[in-house]
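input
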Amino acid sequence: MAQEYEQLKLENQLCFPMYACARKIVNAYTPYLKPLGLTYTQYIVFMVLWEKESVNVGQLGEILRLDAGTLTPLLKRLEQEGYVTRRRSAEDERITVVSITEKAEALKEQCKDIPLALAREGSPLSAEEAKELYGLLYRFLDG
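output
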């Protein structure tokens, strides 16, 4: 490949290993989430709701870096399955507030060991390297 096209080589792209790692990590969760009927995206929504109990859709989108087009059908499905409730904010009817239900709170117990199970599967990174990577990824995301 001519020198002027070096930048188009896949091996020269930062985006590709980030993309491939993200896919690998999400796929590692599948054996744990599938028996619970969850996708990775639903799981991360639950992680926010388990922590906050109630959050508006805009805040949820900011935290998870997801747009309304992704969140709305996902939340609608979780509501139909009895995991969340959605209601309009009393202060501003344009804002939808999502709250966790008892059913979702019970699911928390079934999910609590997933991070430990994944950690046991082993990572090629030391704890220090993982912490450094975590910081670098958020620096990239927030930059």
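quick obs: The two ends are 32 Å apart (CA to CA).
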